[in-house]
TrEMBL record:
InterPro entries: Mutator_transp_dom (IPR049012)
Ranges where the Mutator-like transposase domain occurs: 59-180
Name listed for the protein in its UniProt record: Mutator-like transposase domain-containing protein
Pfam family, one: Mutator
Top-level taxon of the source organism: Eukaryota
Amino acid sequence: MPQTKKFGHQKRRLIRKKTSVCVVSEKCDVSSSKKKIEKSKGYFDYEDNFSAESQIRFVIIDLNMLNDIFNNIAKCRYCDRSFCFDVTENKSSRKGLASSISATCKYCGSSHGSMTSNSVPAGYEVNLRFVYGMRCIGIGKSAAQTFCALMNLPPPPAKFERLYTPIFNALETASSRSMTGRSNKQLQHLVECELCDVSNATASSSIDELLNS
């Protein structure tokens, strides 16, 4: 028996074209710290100092090794002699993990000293990083003292708890900045994917106003 064709109205389905947004991260290294402290602003910039783009600038080094490095590569600029330096720490000028290191010539007595960390409005950068790191892993001053003793490091800053305030303020600022950025990206994504009703002129104008604000 021959097949008969059925005529009638067929439902059409509107398949909306999907658009995908590919986000390529410009950060090629997942480590810990864009961050230099913005001294002019007077606060510790969390976002800049703990991003993946920042280079590793803090290392643990034995003072004896540092003494060998000085004597192998440097000459005294006053007496022009080599292998003449004594590298020592001035313990009276120690500020937590920030130490005062000096290199003194054995022959002419000339000396040059420097702190081992940058100075920031809240103290020293190494102390801020140390306190922040301890808080991130859930330990406080007592455990930090034990860690420093076992590592033969200077003791942590005496005003350990006082550094919580600038760190928490920086975290709050970074969190607010991140939330604002994400909101703008989500609105932009809605427009690009045509998920909002473009026929509604009021909604469209309000989104444009939000994006431009």
